[in-house]
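Tokens for chain A. Residues wanted.
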């Protein structure tokens, strides 16, 4: 019987992943935790505890007390916010990871999921169809922490047998919980603003292509990776996940198919330099052949779901 700890259940990924895990493993077996209150759907469907991943003693006592066997550690300061507080972001991102690696080594919570990101790549990386193995010289504090984290995960797997699994998420797009502090956030905000005000000022320039994925596909990929037979995993750093690739101009055109008078203008800020250092598209063939990564949504099918669901939510 699996007993799962989700750290960061109130965030963009956590709020949806927790519910998906509860459907599979049973509400009472998925322990949602965060330092802030989660949405009602999480509070009402199963256990929730305020827990700070940076407090190792508490974390360890929690895992032992509830006989945790798997951990999803989703706590992180994202790329845009991290550039405002580089030292703190480094400390938080690395300590959160190291505490869960130690937890997996010290207790029965041996299986650990930790999200990496396309931010591990940098300006010297091939920009199109970026391969799994390539030059990686990230120049953002978030990217440096994700790259170091991948190395630590692989190290704990080889040295201590921790069942570390990870995906390099592209920008994730969802209608449930808004993104917080990332460079790809525009691709979520644009849908909310299209419905609320029929206009959006984008903080990236119109031709900035980035890899993106609809949340349903990301949740499925995450659970598929965690459920994959160990023998199928040829790498224990982190798998490239491509999803789709589009620019702000492409999303605007996709929205205009449903809201013809939607308007967009562009005022690039400091996040433009971050986006310019990241890949435009990703080669995820290793994940596809190792454990069967597959995704369903393209830009137009995602736009349809986003607009329909946000309308319902705001009604
Ligand atoms: C961010 O923009 O910081 C994140 C990411 C791509 O990891 N969404």
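Reply:
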């Amino acid at each position: 019987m699996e007993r799962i700890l989700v750290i960061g259940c109130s965030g963009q990924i956590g709020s949806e992943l927790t519910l998906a895990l509860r459907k599979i493993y049973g509400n009472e077996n998925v322990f949602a935790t965060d330092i802030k209150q989660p949405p009602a759907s999480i509070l009402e469907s199963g256990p929730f505890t305020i827990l700070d991943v940076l407090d190792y003693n508490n974390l360890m006592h929690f895992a032992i007390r509830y006989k945790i066997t798997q951990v999803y550690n989703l706590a992180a300061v994202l790329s845009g916010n991290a550039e405002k507080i580089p030292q703190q972001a480094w400390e938080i991102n690395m300590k959160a990871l190291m505490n869960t690696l130690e937890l997996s080594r010290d207790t029965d919570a041996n299986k650990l999921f930790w999200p990496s990101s396309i931010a591990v790549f940098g300006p010297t990386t091939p920009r199109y169809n970026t391969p799994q193995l390539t030059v990686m010289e990230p120049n953002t504090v978030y990217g440096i922490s994700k790259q170091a984290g991948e190395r630590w995960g692989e190290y704990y797997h080889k040295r201590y047998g921790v069942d570390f699994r990870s995906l390099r998420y592209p920008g994730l797009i969802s209608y449930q919980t808004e993104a917080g502090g990332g460079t790809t956030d525009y691709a979520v905000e644009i849908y909310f603003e299209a419905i609320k005000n029929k206009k959006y000022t984008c903080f990236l320039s119109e031709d900035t292509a980035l890899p993106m994925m609809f949340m349903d596909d990301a949740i499925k990929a995450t659970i598929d990776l965690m459920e994959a037979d160990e023998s199928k995993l040829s790498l224990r750093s982190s798998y490239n996940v491509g999803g789709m690739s589009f620019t702000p101009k492409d999303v605007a055109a996709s929205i205009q198919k449903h809201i013809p008078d939607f308007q967009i203008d562009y005022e690039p800020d400091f996040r433009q330099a971050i986006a310019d250092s990241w890949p435009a598209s990703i080669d995820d063939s290793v994940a596809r052949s190792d454990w069967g990564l597959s995704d369903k949504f393209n830009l137009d099918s995602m736009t349809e779901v986003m607009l329909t669901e946000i309308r319902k939510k705001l009604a």
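Residues 183 and 271 are 6 Å apart (CA to CA). The mean pLDDT is 97.
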